[in-house]
Amino acid sequence: MTGRMDRKAAVGGAGRRPLARGLVGVVGGAVQYRGIGPRSEGEITVPPVNQQVLGRAFLKGMYEDAYFPDHVVDRGRAILLGLCERIEAEQPPDLAALYALTEVATQEFNALEAEFEAAGSEIETVAREVIAEDFRFVAAAYGFAEADVEELIAARDW
């Protein structure tokens, strides 16, 4: 099994409504998620349903290091969750399609660099490793274990 799934079947069909945009909280290191991601205001989204993703504490190493402000790391976590949401919605058929999705997410991290700098931090060596590992995790969680991590984040400026 590749890890990819039929989106309608995964969401649960009738009687299940998409959740409103916003972060509910963190429980046991795992994100409790409601459709966070770069989208227009008021848009209703469906959170990822992949159980590996739901159990992942994204950017854990950055949260554990006081050098990285949590409110900015939260934005990075939202980028990764948005990537998961897009993978589930678009179900990329091959690595090229996956790399197109990760390129967009990587560019979102590029834009986030300014927020880190404004908060007295930056995406430096530790952050690069943590972010790259989470991109690799996402690829594997959706059936792309063979993905090259350098290709996943090839558009990075950090």
Please provide a brief summary of the model.
With 158 residues, the chain is mainly alpha-helical.
N-to-C span: 34 Å
Number of helices: 7
* H/E element sequence: HEEHHHHHH
Strand order, largest beta sheet: 1-2
Poorly predicted parts: 1-44
Q: Helical percent range?
A: 40-55%
Beta-sheet strand percentage? 5-15%
Q: Give the strand tally.
A: 2
Rounded average pLDDT = 80
Identify the overall geometry. Answer: globular
Structural class: mainly alpha
Oligomer: single chain
User: Quick one: biggest sheet?
Assistant: 2 strands, antiparallel
Over all CA atoms, what is the radius of gyration? Answer: 15 Å
Characterization of the model:
There is one protein chain. Residues 1-44 have low confidence and may be disordered. This protein has helices at residues 7-11, 51-54, 60-63, 70-90, 95-118, 125-141, 149-152, and strands at residues 22-27, 30-34. It is built from 7 helices and 2 strands, in the order αββαααααα. A hairpin with a 2-residue loop joins strand 1 and strand 2. It has a two-stranded antiparallel sheet. It is mainly alpha-helical.
List the topology elements.
Blueprint: H1 7-11, E1 22-27, E2 30-34, H2 51-54, H3 60-63, H4 70-90, H5 95-118, H6 125-141, H7 149-152
Antiparallel strand pairs: 1-2
